[in-house]
């Protein structure tokens, strides 16, 4: 999770947005529709996927929507395929989404470098395989460098490639999954685009698709009707300042003139006969979209490019500083994250869970642990681009101290946390029977 800028919250709380009702006449909702339309266009530009829907309410929901689109697309071609291939390093939601859509999941073992094994994939991908679901950068924080070849293998077998782009930090402004050949991509606004993340939501998991899959996207789609007068106005204002650098030149510009805005009509279009239908009540989690849009416009094109660079730099900085103290089984450099194995520490009787708890005593949010499943005693370290050098150094110092303590007096790390109000809740009970109100 990255820093959630206050300005996002201010924008989402503007009365013009908060007092809107989803049943309000379309003429009175032009502002929000314009915002949503433009957000779609920015995501198109960032990802290289030709069309987007903002409806899915989370990453997992985007995956399910993607699976439904794949099934509808293949059925339209008269094909019924039964299998989805998923690497063993994938997020647990991937197989769950495929299974929920009625597919049989085939897990493919990663190679010694933690990447998709091309030879194995060739053997696995048959005429009964609907798609490969791949995460890139994968959950080990490694870039699947053979992605172009991987997409070719899938396409040659008549199948598709679904890319899990929940975390796009490393690629932001640097590389585009659409250019690599993937057919569907989901993005998590709550991971990459600075909307709040935690407490169970709400999130947003927009998905982008190729031209071939566009007809199957959920309805309603936000479309823009341009009148003849608008076209004249647009030609006149071509190159005008005030146009967002993130938007393509042929898109609706954000030029200041009110008259121009009124001449463009945004509509909610239900006229897509091949659409899989709605996946969400109304139009999705609009508040998250306002936040993401604000974030993107406040960064601008240059800022977005820096996100990718800094996220990768920060992760590699930590990786380099910690590699002497902890085992990092995969990769020599990483993208936005890397995965430590506390196998060595486990021999001293201290687990990944203990280390995560000890970090709470040092004032750090505990990292994701025991994931990905292919790393024993895994601790996933993902600093994001918004952490300062000082914070990174403080984190390094805490991690080194923990490693040294484990060597000399492991019980100090085992009996943690000491500084929090609640020590160690029953994790299963906390997840299964949460008490969400004060009694
Ligand atoms: C977080 C995540 C998901 C699931 O996203 P949710 O919004 O939590 O449903 C899927 N894949 C990857 C790689 C993730 O990191």
TrEMBL record:
Source organism of the structure: Candidatus Brocadia sinica JPN1
Enzyme class (EC, first level): oxidoreductase
UniProt KW keywords: Oxidoreductase, Pyridoxal phosphate
NCBIfam families per record: PRK04366.1
Keyword set includes Oxidoreductase: yes
Domain Aminotransferase class V residues, every copy: 68-198
Protein name: glycine dehydrogenase (aminomethyl-transferring)
Function: The glycine cleavage system catalyzes the degradation of glycine. The P protein binds the alpha-amino group of glycine through its pyridoxal phosphate cofactor; CO(2) is released and the remaining methylamine moiety is then transferred to the lipoamide cofactor of the H protein.
Domain Glycine dehydrogenase C-terminal positions: 309-410
Catalytic activity: N(6)-[(R)-lipoyl]-L-lysyl-[glycine-cleavage complex H protein] + glycine + H(+) = N(6)-[(R)-S(8)-aminomethyldihydrolipoyl]-L-lysyl-[glycine-cleavage complex H protein] + CO2
Alphabetical list of Pfam families matching this protein: Aminotran_5, GcvP2_C
Database matches in InterPro entries: Aminotrans_V_dom, GDC-P_C, GDC_P, PyrdxlP-dep_Trfase, PyrdxlP-dep_Trfase_major, PyrdxlP-dep_Trfase_small
Record-listed E.C. numbers: 1.4.4.2
Upper taxonomic lineage: Bacteria, Pseudomonadati, Planctomycetota, Candidatus Brocadiia, Candidatus Brocadiales
């Amino acid at each position: 999770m990255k820093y959630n800028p206050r300005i996002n919250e201010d924008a989402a709380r503007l009365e013009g947005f908060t007092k809107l009702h989803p049943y309000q006449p379309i003429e009175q909702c032009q502002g929000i529709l314009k915002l949503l339309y433009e957000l779609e266009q920015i995501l198109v530009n960032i990802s290289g996927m030709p069309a987007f829907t903002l409806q899915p309410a989370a990453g997992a929901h985007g995956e399910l929507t993607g699976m439904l689109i794949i099934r509808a697309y293949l059925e339209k071609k008269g094909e019924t395929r039964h299998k989805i291939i998923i690497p063993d390093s994938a997020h647990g939601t991937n197989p769950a989404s495929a299974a929920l859509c009625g597919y049989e999941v085939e897990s493919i073992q990663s190679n010694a470098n933690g990447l998709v094994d091309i030879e194995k994939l060739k053997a696995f991908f048959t005429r009964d395989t609907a798609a490969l679901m791949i995460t890139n950068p994968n959950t080990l924080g490694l870039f699947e460098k053979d992605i172009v070849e991987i997409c070719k293998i899938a396409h040659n077998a008549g199948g598709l490639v679904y890319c899990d782009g929940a975390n796009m930090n490393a690629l932001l402004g640097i590389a585009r999954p659409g250019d690599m050949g993937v057919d569907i991509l989901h993005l998590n606004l709550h991971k990459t685009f600075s909307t709040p993340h935690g407490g169970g939501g709400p999130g947003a998991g927009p998905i982008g698709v190729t031209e071939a899959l566009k007809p199957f996207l959920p309805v309603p789609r936000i479309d823009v009707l341009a009148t003849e007068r608008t076209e004249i106005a647009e030609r006149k204002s071509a190159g005008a300042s005030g146009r967002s650098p993130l938007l393509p030149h042929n898109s609706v510009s954000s030029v200041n003139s009110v008259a121009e805005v009124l001449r463009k009509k945004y509509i909610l279009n239900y006229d897509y006969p091949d659409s899989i239908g709605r996946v969400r009540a109304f139009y999705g989690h609009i508040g998250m979209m306002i936040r993401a849009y604000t974030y993107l416009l406040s960064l601008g094109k240059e800022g977005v490019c820096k996100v990718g660079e800094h996220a990768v730099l920060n992760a590699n900085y930590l990786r380099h500083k910690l590699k002497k103290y902890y085992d990092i089984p995969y990769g020599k450099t990483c993208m936005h994250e890397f995965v430590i194995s506390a196998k060595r520490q486990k021999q001293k009787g201290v687990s990944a869970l203990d280390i995560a708890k000890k970090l709470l005593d040092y004032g750090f949010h505990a990292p994701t642990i025991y994931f990905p499943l292919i790393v024993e005693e895994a601790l996933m370290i993902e600093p994001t681009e918004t952490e300062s050098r000082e914070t990174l150094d403080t984190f390094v110092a805490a991690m080194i101290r923990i490693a040294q303590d484990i060597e000399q007096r492991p019980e100090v790390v085992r009996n943690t946390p000491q500084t929090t109000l609640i020590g160690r809740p029953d994790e299963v009970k906390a997840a299964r029977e949460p008490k969400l109100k004060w009694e």
